[in-house]
């Protein structure tokens, strides 16, 4: 893969890319100090709204304001529609895959995905086997992480099907853009994102099969890194935010305890990981979940979004097979392609990875949030040696990929305006009749010079993503 960098705002000759003209003029017409002042105002707005996340890697679990960068990332609308089609295709296939592995297992019988990678996967939930959902949708809300490589093409970095987060940052970031950049924002047609909470609620209603279901958002509590988002979405949808102790199961029905008595719950938008959902089915020491919830779910008396057991489909060891899933279930060629991936469980791949650790990115198959990674070119000899021992001790637990040339976007940093690496997380809603994607998603930015890790927990920030209607030929 090419190692050249793709600048999202400017082409190689220094001219603004299509759709980026107004932002380029704004940057040229303002001093870096003035832009830095706007950036600080944006951070203050985030602080006042309490838009925070928690850094679990630090002993004190410090709660921080999410860094927001005032310079937007621009994508032309026709280019976005291709991404939208690719994400929708991918999610359709992944939902079919999850249904299949908990039922007939056709793809395993066909020899396309090894049974061992499914049946012994930590995210595979035997409780889900044989459940016939009213609509075979498991990943109702998904976040597909995309990067643009130096060749100008988009690639899927990973699929997030469990409890994907970040949509609140997308929505709050748009409010800041409209407030602090009214002239440049209003000078072009930027597709809206503020209807996402309504889209989400409509999707949850559709999946319930009822006209007026009782919906709740289940949170593990305020110490969770995404708690701000849990509260934000519950408020925007006008539904209760609940903890496990607010719910009870009786006669295989779920109820919420209120001051006026019990009310039956039809849909649970859970932001709680599988092991903690039900102490009778999963971890017996969990005090976050709801005892007997899985019994109510198996009886068909409550919808859980996303469904338990979806994590097996976004495991990094299963990720290399998504292209085959699309061909197998949809009889289509993938619109979006994966990053080339080495599976350390395979002898030849393991040998290659161990010989090239200094130039690869190695990830835990169950990892998330940027934790547990090795970025070979940025690591010391000792770090590489220590990581080698981890891989050798458990090859099945790791995959490796080439070090990618993530695209860059001008970003407001201490030194002034400088390019920083970015990715993109569109948010995909899967309903009974259609897949819907809000036009934009969350652009994450690695604020440290040279860093390729965009996760907020690893020092990354976020940008607003503008999908702009333009005139002229595609890029």
Automatic annotation (TrEMBL):
Pfam families given in the database record: CP_ATPgrasp_2
Domain Circularly permuted ATP-grasp type: 72-446
Gene3D superfamilies recorded: 3.30.1490.270, 3.40.50.11290
InterPro entries named in the record: ATP-dep_Glu-Cys_Ligase-2, CP_ATPgrasp_2, UCP005522
Name recorded for this polypeptide: Circularly permuted ATP-grasp type 2 domain-containing protein
